[in-house]
Specification:
Elements lengths: L2 E2 L3 E9 L2 E8 L5 E6 L2 E6 L5 E7 L7 E6 L9 H4 L1 H4 L6 E5 L9 E6 L9 E7 L44 E5 L6 E10 L9 E7 L7 E9 L4 E7 L5
Length: 243
């Protein structure tokens, strides 16, 4: 394992319609440069003439960009927690894990909502999917109904007969996982609900989560005045809404 932040310089950062074009110079000719966005490894490039250019899709104002130089065989290895432990502890996304219990039905749908920072209502839909996408993992002999699925299995990998003994009879529980977009610091309410094929809704499960991430940067740098007699300019900018 060999990684370093030394010798890396950001030389350009241009906003475009679909993301950001970021130019990086690396003084280590034998390394590959990794780009991390909000803690996720997005891309790895080998510098050409000491430079590489990353196009990062859908990068918002709350996203944190970090670059790491690694050995070429480790280009796809995510070193974020090891290389940036303090930053990794200050995430800016809400992550939800929901168990796929066999008590749910084949056509049940999961919806996950969040609120705005500081609000008490979770009214923004952030994820919606089938509880068992394409039937994978649903039902099984004695649960899915006579004639539905094979003996012991239904869909692609369901435990089937004996499914309830110890929860899935020797198979570990699987989870639905969802992550929101990057968010500013604050306290958010998260709500999950399951709806069946005829519209019946489960009792919602809610939890308040506090993101202790870094504040959004200031923006809109502009020239306010120019004084010709002293050849000086006055600058102004919009302060971070989180400070």
């Amino acid at each position: 394992m060999a990684y370093t932040t030394e010798g890396i310089t950001i030389v350009s950062d241009i906003a475009q319609d679909m993301g950001r074009l970021v130019g990086v110079r690396c003084g280590l000719a034998d390394k590959v440069v990794q780009a991390y966005v909000a803690g996720q490894l997005q891309q790895a490039l080998r510098p050409v003439g000491g430079a590489c250019e990353f196009f990062l899709h859908d990068v918002g104002e709350t996203e944190l960009l970090f670059f790491l130089a690694v050995d070429p065989p480790e280009a796809d290895t995510n070193y974020w927690p090891a290389a940036f432990p303090e930053l990794a502890a200050h995430g800016n996304r809400l992550r939800v894990r929901l168990p796929q219990w066999r008590t749910y039905s084949l056509h049940d749908v999961v919806e996950i909502h969040r609120g705005q920072a500081g609000q008490t209502e979770a009214d923004i839909l952030v994820h919606r999917q089938d509880m068992f996408p394409n039937g994978r993992g649903a039902a099984g002999w004695g649960l899915g109904g006579f004639g539905r699925g094979g003996y012991g299995y239904d869909g692609a990998n369901c435990p089937g007969f004996g499914w309830g003994y110890g929860h899935q009879y020797g198979l570990g529980c699987e989870f639905i996982e969802a992550a929101t977009e990057s968010l500013p610091p604050g306290r958010y309410v998260v709500r999950a609900i399951v709806t069946d094929a005829v519209g019946n809704e489960s009792a919602p499960v809610e939890q308040a989560v506090t993101l202790s991430t870094y504040p959004r940067p200031a923006g809109e740098l502009r020239i306010e005045r120019y004084e010709s007699n002293t050849d000086t300019i006055g600058l102004a900018w919009t302060a971070s809404p989180d400070l």
